[in-house]
Amino acid sequence: MTLSSYWWLLIWIFAAGLISLIVSHKDQELVMGKPEVRWSPWMALVLVLPLVFWAANRRLDFGDSGIYRAFFNGVPRGFENLGSFLDSQEKDKGYAAFELIFKTLVSDHYVWFFFF
């Protein structure tokens, strides 16, 4: 992704928010005895899904994404490696176990991990 894609993301948020103010219908609900106005779930998805997609496909030099990718690529695949892998970790053993389980059961591509 280049810098221009960040601008497109901001333009999307602004345009979709403006369109949703005009087009979307809002629901009124009672929350703890007070009437609250809530966005419809569909409009919330339309506004949030591009942000999630962008976050999953972010550049590897953006923040600490490269470190997360390198750690994910270094995690072995398969449950037989779980014990020895967790013993080699000094901290964040739960996160490391989650990555190994994700890599074994879901996908070994880091973009899917970022998406999740």
Report on the architecture of this protein.
It is a single chain. 63% of the residues lie in helices and 9% in strands. The protein is built from 6 helices and 2 strands, in the order αββααααα. Strands 1-2 form a two-stranded antiparallel ribbon. It is mainly α. The longest helix has 21 residues, at 3-23. Helix 1 runs antiparallel to helix 2.
Low-confidence parts lasting 5 or more residues at pLDDT below 50?
A: none
* Number of distinct helices: 6
The helix content, as a percent range, equals 55-70%
Task: Write the element-wise H/E pattern from the N-terminal end onward.
Answer: HEEHHHHH
What is the assembly state of the chains in this entry?
single chain
The major beta sheet can be summarized as: 2 strands, antiparallel
Total E-strand runs = 2
Shape: elongated
Strand content: 5-15%
Query: Compute the gyration radius: what is it?
Result: 20 Å
Q: What separation lies between the terminal Cα atoms?
A: 19 Å
Question: Which terms would index this structure?
Answer:
6 helices; two-stranded antiparallel ribbon; mainly alpha; 116 residues; elongated; 63% helix
Quick synopsis:
The protein is mainly α.
What's the SSE blueprint?
Blueprint: H1 3-23, E1 27-31, E2 34-38, H2 41-56, H3 65-74, H4 82-88, H5 93-105, H6 110-115
Helix pairs in contact: 1-2
